Amino acid sequence: MKYVSTRGGDTPKSFCEVVLEGLCRDGGLSMPESIPQISKETLTKWRNLTSYSELALEVASLYATDIPREDLQKLVENAYNTQNFGVESIISERSIGENIKVLGLSEGPTFAFKDMAMQFLGQLFPYVLEKMDRTLNIVGATSGDTGSSAIHAMKGKPRINVVMLSPHNRMSAFQTAQMYSVQDKNIYNIAVEGVFDDCQDLVKALNNDIAFKEKFNLGAVNSINFARILAQIIYYFKGYFMTATSNDEVIDVVIPSGNFGNIFAGIMARQMGLPIRKLILATNENNVLDEFFKTGVYKPRASKDVHLTSSPSMDIAKASNFERFIYLIAGSEATKALWEQIDTQGYFDLTKGELWADRAEWNIESGESSHQNRIETIQRIYKESNELIDPHTADGVFVGSHYLDGTTQVCLETAKPIKFYETIKQAVNDAPFDLAEVEKIEALPQKKEVMANDAALLRQFIESALN
Ligand SMILES: *Cc1c(COP(=O)(O)O)cnc(C)c1O
């Protein structure tokens, strides 16, 4: 399998080459040149596989064709096991009403669905680096979830260092503890005296210095990495087998969305032949994507216009993976032209061309929730089903409730409720949390470097720490 750019202007690459890079040379994102098709027979075979990692091997081997099968098997077995995930099945399933199911994707070490992909990357990166005899210094900025998941996936791994910038004193006690309690030598937590945007700007400044970037092998684990999409395709298959009783059944899937990575994996799985009828995209007050699916206008926002919400992992200004969807429906030439329009006029309007006429065939619905909607949904589900859901999942359940018609609806649970217990306590005062697990993590010793918001200081730090 070769990988091409969504904007058509880069040479085709192998999977391993794509794993370590960010954007393509033309500014586009890597995509497989074709989408593997799964026959009915194969789907039957896959349903009968017993472990998650067996299924992962089958899916991954269609995309990572330059990794020998025995190697790939070790990588998925080392990623998807009960040491890393709390349950044998790796993902979990529970009912929250007639025909409504919650698919738990947050059984990993940081209690959020990012672990599903990041644990795979934690195996894949050292493998590819070894093969290429390279090292990688991951420098990133986080407001909580992604950074934490990356740290837990990369800690102790050979050929990799992680320098993670986070806003000093601006994360929840639990998020802070989860990140700063990692003591491994290859993990460097930097608490920047500023906000998340300042952290991001510092990382950008560093990456703009090409000479510095090359000298220190700087890289990222951002959400546009195709290996992350691949890892997420796997749980759509597994989730389907767990929630649909036979391969003749169709399901709808609801996805709490930010950067469009999770739902895009669902779009890929459906294109491969998985019997999903509708994909329902849910946003919070940061509704760029809901706006697009309702009006045809895609208009990224400025980071200063991002609302800080009670579902913080979905607080985005633009949806980086959205370009991949446009590429699938429009091809690379149109994608290139549309992103040029974003550069020149700040948005594009799909109703101006022919593509919008196919809107109904996309089978993608969308909606948004407010803080009040999420709180009420958490209360309602607790009352009706005695189940707690986190604010991101509540966003999905709320939006999904407008599309119930008897078909099984599967809402993806992107974080465990305990991770956001402060918000949940607002909704359900006497929520039966076992805070022992949280308190245990919060009590661990923490390791971090507090740093002023100054690019020169960050540079000095990297020069002395990573040399
Ligand atoms: C990252 C994240 C999301 C959004 O997922 P995307 O792939 O960016 O659309 C939703 N919920 C939680 C808890 C997350 O961490």
Automatic annotation (TrEMBL):
<feature type="domain" description="Threonine synthase N-terminal">
    <location>
        <begin position="2"/>
        <end position="80"/>
    </location>
</feature>
<dbReference type="InterPro" id="IPR001926">
    <property type="entry name" value="TrpB-like_PALP"/>
</dbReference>
<dbReference type="InterPro" id="IPR037158">
    <property type="entry name" value="Thr_synth_N_sf"/>
</dbReference>
<comment type="similarity">
    <text>Belongs to the threonine synthase family.</text>
</comment>
<dbReference type="InterPro" id="IPR004450">
    <property type="entry name" value="Thr_synthase-like"/>
</dbReference>
<dbReference type="Pfam" id="PF00291">
    <property type="entry name" value="PALP"/>
</dbReference>
<dbReference type="InterPro" id="IPR029144">
    <property type="entry name" value="Thr_synth_N"/>
</dbReference>
<keyword id="KW-0663">Pyridoxal phosphate</keyword>
<dbReference type="InterPro" id="IPR051166">
    <property type="entry name" value="Threonine_Synthase"/>
</dbReference>
<dbReference type="InterPro" id="IPR036052">
    <property type="entry name" value="TrpB-like_PALP_sf"/>
</dbReference>
<keyword id="KW-0456">Lyase</keyword>
<dbReference type="Pfam" id="PF14821">
    <property type="entry name" value="Thr_synth_N"/>
</dbReference>
<protein>
    <recommendedName>
        <fullName>Threonine synthase</fullName>
        <ecNumber>4.2.3.1</ecNumber>
    </recommendedName>
</protein>
<feature type="domain" description="Tryptophan synthase beta chain-like PALP">
    <location>
        <begin position="108"/>
        <end position="308"/>
    </location>
</feature>
<dbReference type="GO" id="GO:0004795">
    <property type="term" value="F:threonine synthase activity"/>
</dbReference>
<dbReference type="Pfam" id="PF24857">
    <property type="entry name" value="THR4_C"/>
</dbReference>
